[in-house]
Backbone:
């Protein structure tokens, strides 16, 4: 029976050959046929016949445990070989097992029992016994029972293995101490392994030292660009600083002012976008450099062979996971920086546009107030309130109306002379006709001067409209 040990399948398992050879060089009894040859060939045969680990076997990761288990297996194998040799070469003692006593050997008397003839004592008793006598042993049945018991008690191969393992000693003491060459080689490899890891960390640190100033320089360049654009933005918005400069602008200048401000904000957004692209490019270069460092030092660590490839890959993977977390944190910081800058620019542009629109409203209100005040002053001027042409028209109208009215009064006075007997029909008709002519003349005069007044007011209103348009 072999002791199953989960040996590492890595190349560094060969380091234990010297220890195995030292353990197997102990003085042993003559080996069986399958152990012929020197100790190293026996060790090789042991490695070739080593059973594969079954499912669920625990794979240890400590090289010291591997070495101890391997030495223990070699010692147990040697003890097992000695036990097998002793069992195969011990003096044979024939035991005859019967139904009465299966453990005591039969001691035969060399002198023949001639008094009973050729039959044994129990056989002779059976011949003298009655038929169907249950108390007398039947020799045929006894022989068949003994053969059946021998067949049942025959040891199987697994039983022999169990017996051999049970015969092994509880504590196996090696005949000599093992050499410390393996320990010194292991310590040397451990030092080289730690030194390589330290060099890898130093080179990774140098990669960070190389790329960090580039990132800082690019951020400072963006800061300077934004500062220059900030000055340009202040210069373009300077007309909105005071009411005097605001009111001095015309409508075309005020509406065109925002176009220049929008161009400045577009330049700021482009600068922020170029920063994000540059940071991502630098980060990509850093990832490439870090990947190169990991590949190169992984090969070096594999050549050192201090750890098994699986354990080494796990350590490198842990380092890579930590570095990936750092790189992801950098990318997250870059994305957060870009988002903050873009949101800040959008918010500032929104606030600037709202300020510009407020200034437009203020400009319009100021100009409306100025126009209303000027128009009110224009309306209150003597040219509008009492135009000279209107006074001339009214004076001429009053003069003509007074003349016509005097003629009408004369006709009314003539009416008193038409009393009988001087009154006649023809005289009254003539007076009536004259009165109609005077009244008609008065109406025509009124209509004429009223039309002149309307024309004068139209002229004044036209002047007012011209004044409004001029505002």
Residues:
């Amino acid at each position: 029976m072999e002791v199953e040990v989960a040996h590492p399948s890595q190349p560094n398992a060969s380091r234990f050959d010297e220890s195995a050879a030292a353990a197997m060089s102990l003085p042993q009894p003559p080996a069986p046929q399958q152990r012929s040859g020197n100790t190293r060939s026996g060790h090789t045969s042991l490695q070739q016949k080593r059973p594969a680990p079954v499912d669920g076997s625990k794979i240890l990761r400590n090289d010291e445990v591997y070495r101890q288990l391997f030495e223990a297996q070699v010692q147990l194998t040697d003890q097992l070989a000695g036990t097998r040799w002793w069992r195969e070469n011990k003096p044979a003692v024939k035991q005859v097992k019967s139904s009465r006593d299966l453990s005591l050997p039969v001691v035969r008397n060399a002198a023949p029992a001639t008094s009973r003839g050729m039959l044994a004592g129990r056989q002779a008793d059976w011949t003298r016994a009655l038929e169907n006598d249950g108390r007398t042993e039947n020799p045929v049945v006894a022989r068949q029972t003994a053969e059946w018991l021998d067949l049942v008690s025959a040891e199987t191969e697994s039983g022999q293995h169990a017996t051999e393992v049970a015969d092994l000693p509880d504590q196996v003491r090696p005949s000599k101490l093992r050499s410390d060459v393996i320990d010194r080689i292991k310590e040397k490899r451990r030092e080289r392994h730690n030194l390589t890891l330290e060099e890898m960390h130093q080179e990774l640190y140098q990669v960070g030292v190389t790329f960090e100033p580039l990132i800082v320089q690019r951020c400072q360049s963006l800061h300077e660009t934004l500062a220059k654009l900030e000055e340009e933005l202040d210069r373009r918005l300077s007309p909105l600083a005071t009411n005097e400069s605001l009111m001095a602008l015309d409508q075309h200048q005020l509406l065109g002012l925002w176009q220049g401000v929008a161009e400045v904000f577009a330049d700021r957004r482009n600068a922020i976008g170029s920063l994000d692209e540059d940071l991502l490019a630098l980060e990509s270069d850093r990832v490439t450099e870090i990947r190169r460092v990991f590949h190169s030092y992984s090969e070096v660590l594999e050549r050192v062979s201090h750890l098994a490839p699986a354990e080494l890959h796990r350590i490198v993977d842990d380092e890579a996971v930590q570095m990936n977390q750092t790189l992801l944190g950098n990318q997250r910081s870059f994305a957060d920086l870009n988002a903050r800058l873009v949101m800040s620019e959008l918010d500032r542009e929104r606030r600037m546009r709202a300020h510009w629109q407020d200034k437009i409203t203020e400009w319009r209100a100021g100009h409306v107030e100025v126009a209303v005040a000027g128009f009110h002053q224009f309306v209150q001027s003597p040219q509008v309130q009492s135009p000279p042409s209107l006074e001339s028209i009214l004076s001429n109208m009053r003069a003509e109306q007074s003349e016509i009215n005097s003629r009408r009064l004369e006709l009314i006075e003539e009416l008193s002379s038409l009393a009988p007997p001087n009154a006649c029909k023809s005289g009254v008709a003539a007076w009536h006709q004259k009165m109609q002519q005077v009244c008609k003349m008065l109406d025509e005069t009124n209509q004429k001067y009223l039309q002149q007044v309307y024309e004068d007011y139209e002229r004044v209103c036209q002047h007012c409209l011209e004044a409004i348009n001029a505002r």
